[in-house]
Amino acid sequence: MLPGVDGSRGSSGAVEAQRVVILSGLSGAGKTAATKLFEDLGYTCVDNLPGELLPELAELVAGDPERFARVAIVLDVRAGDAPGAFAAMRGALESHHIEPRVIFLEARDEVLIRRFSETRHRHPLGDQRGIASSIAEERRLLDPVREEADVVLDTSDLSLRQLRERLFAQLGDESGPDRLAVQLISFGFKFGVPLEADLVFDVRFMHNPYYVEELRQLSGLTEVVRRFVLDQPLAGRFLAFLEEFLDLTVPAYLEEGKTRLTIAIGCTGGYHRSIVVAEELAAWLRERDFGPVSVFHRELDRG
Question: What are the pLDDT digits (tens) for 70-84?
């Protein structure tokens, strides 16, 4: 039997809109940890249900929106025909006017191999070919699901806390028809570009505080580094450009029905310039009140 959750009601007593997440991804990429995080948020979590039963689950969820106000469904290669099961599940939900949010977790091959080695868990596709071949086959099988995902998260370098922050940012307040939820990510190019970014901006043209000895160990969240970056004439011009660009594009995104926008700001190490610019842009976005704004500094813990 599926576990139930308390009905989610607003102050007026009306049942809030259902939130349904389909969580997919590679084995070892963090789906178990993510499921526990969803449980902490009061989601009913369903994992490893046979693909043939997924349409029935959709009927159950749609038929009792108060009991199943928040649902997270884990769907991966264990379902058998994962793309077919995913299409059936999504189609069944959408036929009941429920638009699921699809989150796909992945990681680099060497990270997945290390995680399986450390936990000694068997890969669901494991055979005599070895773990690397199993991972390659799983990527191939799940590629159609990944292509349909709303969010793709690479968990290779994320701690549990960072994974929580990223998921919580994606599950923030639902945007209305005239609201756009914006997530800003500062990052270092030498560690890779965030896969989920809709827009990527490079601030490596600015003078780097890393080469100022007294600033090297300080992050972009400190006032002295902030002033070093913002006092550069190019910084002000670049921020003015970003503000003009977003003033132009955000209304267009809304007209096209987009409700979420992920903007990545990158510098070399992701510790100084990108953090400063992301924080400044977040402050401006909050003043413009396009919608809820969240900020994630991916490389902050590396410092």
Answer: 999 999 998 888 899
**pLDDT score for 279:** 97
CATH topology of domain 19-170: Rossmann fold (3.40.50)
Query: Measuring CA to CA, which residue among 102, 103, 96 is closest to residue 17?
Result: 96
* Of residues 78, 74, 66, 95, the one with CA closest to residue 7: 66
Q: How far is CA 242 from CA 70, 183, 231, 235, 288, in A?
A: 36, 15, 17, 11, 13
97-120: pLDDT as tens digits: 889 999 999 999 999 999 988 877
Q: What is the DSSP string of 152-213?
A: EEE-TT--HHHHHHHHHHHTSSPP-TT--EEEEEEEEGGG---TT-SEEEE-TTSPPGGGST
Each domain of the chain, given as residue ranges in start order, spans: 19-170, 181-302
Confidence of residue 10 (pLDDT cuts 50, 70, 90): very low
- 220, burial (CB in 10 Å: exposed 0-12, middle 13-18, buried 19+): buried
Q: 234's torsion region: left (phi>0), alpha (psi -120 to 50) or beta?
A: alpha
In the chain, the amino acid numbered 115 is R
Residue 75's closest CA among 33, 43, 111, 103? Answer: 103
Report d(CA 288, CA 282) in Å as an integer.
10
Pairwise CA distance, residues 41 & 254, whole Å: 28
The predicted pLDDT at position 179 comes to 75
Q: Does residue 183 contact residue 263 with C-beta atoms inside 8 Å? A: yes
pLDDT at 181: 84
CA 197, CA 239: separation in Å to the nearest integer? 19
Q: Report the pLDDT value the prediction gives residue 52, as an integer from 0 to 100.
A: 81
Tell me how far apart the alpha carbons of residues 290 and 175 are, in angstroms, rounded to a whole number: 10
Quick one: which of 92, 70, 63 has its CA closest to 23?
70
Reported as type and span, the H/E element at residue 266 is strand 260-267
